[in-house]
Amino acid sequence: MSTQPRQIGNAAAILANTSTAGAIWRVTDEPRQLDANIIHLPAGDRIASHQGPDLDVLIHVLAGSGHLDSGGQSLELASGALIWLPRGSQRAVVAGPDGLTYFSVHPKRPPLGITRPS
Questions:
Q1: Could you tell me which residues are beta bridge partners of residue 23?
Q2: What InterPro entries does the record point to (predicted)?
Q3: Does residue 83 lie in a domain region?
């Protein structure tokens, strides 16, 4: 395992190629304790309302605009916004007229375990 810092991506280059929707970049290096993704939603696209996992999530809006709806509250999303999503929170994300691209980071989920019945 290398303990040396290293560059694993370039956000400017990734943002220059947002022709697809969804996770357009993700950290894949192992071993790691964090998961990180860059998500792109085209104009008007959405991530349906859902309850988040048992993990806190931090998002940083990189480009575009939109809003995040949670528990009757709507947060405006614009470039530079930092949003904390507490574990288990209800959330939906809607991209604005120019689309929405954000960086998401959270603790890595543990692998699914298979247990034998006792």
A1: 39
A2: RmlC-like_jellyroll, RmlC_Cupin_sf
A3: yes
pLDDT, the chain, mean:
89
Question: What is the Rg, in whole angstroms, of the alpha carbon atoms belonging to the chain?
Answer: 16
Query: How confident is the model over 7-22, as a mean pLDDT?
Result: 87
Q: Which CATH number characterizes residue 75's domain?
A: 2.60.120.10
> Which residues touch 65 (CB under 8 Å, ≥6 apart)?
76, 77, 78, 79, 95, 96, 97, 98, 100
Backbone φ and ψ of 71, nearest 5°: 55, 45
pLDDT at 116 over 80: no
From CA 18, how far away is CA 100, in angstroms rounded?
10
Beta bridge partners of 95: 66
Q: Are 74 and 68 in contact (CB under 8 A)?
A: yes
**Partners of 26 in the β-ladder:** 37
- Count CB neighbours of 39 within 10 A: 20
